[in-house]
């Protein structure tokens, strides 16, 4: 049965799904990296494609921005039979350790968002990546000689509420950067017994409207996507 938002039939979506927020990134990934990529949905601009990478069937499905949209997409992908969800996003760096376009592999996401709060009925919870996805991503990054950070990120709702002071406070608690979907993807995946992960490329410093130059960010995004696809190949069949 087709889902309400991800208009696809069971079988259209692969077991392994990469999740960018941005539909243009979804198209770029499908066109650049997947063989035989076919568009299975464009409903609401949430573009979804399925193809193969090194012989492994992979989908790339846009989440849109923010946890409400990401939670809908993750829920519907679970209903469509997905087993591995890996966000491939951008993030605002919270600490000078994280440089423009750096790869950050999340271990967990501080849930500063309303969606996970509602799903959990306000109960305390730590939305975390699956160990095997983190391990596969780290191994892929090492194998591809891609420098990377591994650790905690924060998921938030209000992009423009964050300030450099807020970033410093959370950096002192170990947070590497902020983004807007990982906590929901981790929680929805856990509720369905799926594996989840989140890889990001740093697009700016928190509170700084200056983005990393386009070509520098695009190269960081491509490094991130290649690492995510390397992880998928390693996870396939496990
Ligand atoms: O680049 P994406 O994957 O959209 O991720 C980040 O960018 C958007 C904000 O600019 C939010 O979705 C945030 O999580
Ligand atoms: O959520 C996000 C994503 C990228 N950059 C930010 O500053 N915040």
From TrEMBL:
Lineage: Bacteria, Thermotogati, Deinococcota, Deinococci, Deinococcales
Protein name: Uridine phosphorylase
Enzyme class: transferase
Annotated coiled-coil segments of the chain: none
EC number(s) reported in the record: 2.4.2.3
Pfam families the record matches: PNP_UDP_1
Protein species of origin: Deinococcus aluminii
Keyword line: Glycosyltransferase, Transferase
Catalyzed reaction equations: uridine + phosphate = alpha-D-ribose 1-phosphate + uracil
Cross-referenced CDD domains: PNP_ThPNP_like
Highest taxon of the lineage: Bacteria
Statement: the UniProt record of this protein carries the keyword Transferase: yes
Record-linked InterPro entries: Nucleoside_phosphorylase_CS, Nucleoside_phosphorylase_d, Nucleoside_phosphorylase_sf
Family (UniProt): Belongs to the PNP/UDP phosphorylase family.
Annotated ranges, domain Nucleoside phosphorylase: 16-216
PANTHER family given in the database record: FI09636P-RELATED (PTHR43691:SF11), URIDINE PHOSPHORYLASE (PTHR43691)
